[in-house]
Design goal:
Layout (H helix, E strand, L loop, with lengths): L1 E10 L2 E11 L4 E5 L6 H8 L9 E4 L2 E2 L5 H7 L1 E4 L11 H8 L8 H11 L1 H5 L10 H13 L5 E5 L7 H16 L3 E6 L2 H7 L2 E6 L2 E7 H6 L1 H7 L3
Parallel strand pairs: 3-8, 3-9, 6-7, 7-8
Antiparallel strand pairs: 1-2, 1-4, 4-5, 9-10
The structure holds adenosine-5'-triphosphate.
Adenosine-5'-triphosphate binds next to strand 2 and helix 1.
Keywords: Amino-acid transport, ATP-binding, Nucleotide-binding, Transport
Protein name: High-affinity branched-chain amino acid transport ATP-binding protein LivF
Family: Belongs to the ABC transporter superfamily.
């Protein structure tokens, strides 16, 4: 579904992504794990057309998207739920969700809003509340709901569990599994490697911009280096 081959991304002189190759098959949950600054967010931004690689290739469903503007990438079926949620604090929950469907022209937007309220009942109770007054966990649910409102085939999640209490972390990971079961393919960036590997089919380990290890999530979770560096064992 998504194929990234030998991309390099620079911020000025900083070589943030180094010859990275990875892919996501339809229906999978794939995770990218790595320490702070490894380049996980940079890969997601490159997929969304927010950053560009002068080398390699980036294709989605067989089509080159490396030069597409972000809006057209969303239109093709990819959505990003960014790190830190980035919801619109002064708009209501309902308006934030509606903005996720901004580029849609079909008639099913209000039907999908109802679906989001079923998936996230906490948001249903708070639909007219200003988003900035939601708790951290509720804001994460809203950011995910907003991402889903564009009806993505592939959902990119950047650190969805960051800053959440353990009970909410469990809930968010369950929700990611539910979303995947509904047919949405997931590329999940996480520092919580244990939880990410527990729900993913496959994973990539990123160190200083390089893919240093890849494999089935169950194998990565058993790997000595992964255990020492990312699972605290
Ligand atoms: P974290 O988990 O801390 O968010 P990450 O793995 O997502 O880390 P990135 O945010 O992709 O890492 O950053 C990769 C590298 O690129 C880091 O060294 C970072 O300092 C650098 N970087 C990121 N954004 C910029 C920017 N706008 N300008 C310059 N350097 C940047």
């Amino acid at each position: 579904m998504l194929e990234i081959k030998e991309i390099n991304v620079y911020y000025g002189h900083i070589h943030a992504i180094v010859d990275a190759t990875l892919h996501v098959n339809q229906g999978e949950v794939v995770t990218i794990i790595g320490a702070n600054g490894a380049g996980k967010t940079t890969i997601q931004k490159t997929i969304m057309g927010l950053l560009h690689s002068p080398t390699g290739s980036l294709t989605f469903e067989g089509e080159d998207i490396s030069k597409c503007p972000t809006a057209s990438i969303v239109g093709k079926g990819i959505a990003l739920v960014p790190e830190g949620r980035r919801i619109f604090p002064r708009l209501s929950v309902a308006d934030n969700l509606a903005l996720g469907a901004y580029s849609r022209k079909d008639k099913f937007v209000s039907q999908d809003m109802d679906k989001m309220y079923q998936l996230f009942p906490r948001l249903a109770e708070r639909r007219s509340q200003l988003a900035g007054t939601l708790s951290g966990g509720e804001q994460q649910m809203l950011a995910m709901g907003r991402g889903l409102m564009s009806r993505p085939k592939l959902l990119l999640l950047d650190e969805p569990s960051m800053g959440l209490a353990p009970v909410l972390v469990s809930q968010i990971f369950h929700t990611i599994t539910d979303i995947n079961r509904e047919g949405v393919t997931i590329l999940l960036v996480e520092q919580n490697a244990r939880r990410a590997l527990a729900i993913a089919n496959r994973g990539y380990v990123l160190e200083a911009g390089k893919v240093v290890l890849e494999g089935l999530a169950s194998d990565l979770a058993k790997n000595d280096d992964v255990q020492k560096a990312y699972l605290g064992e």
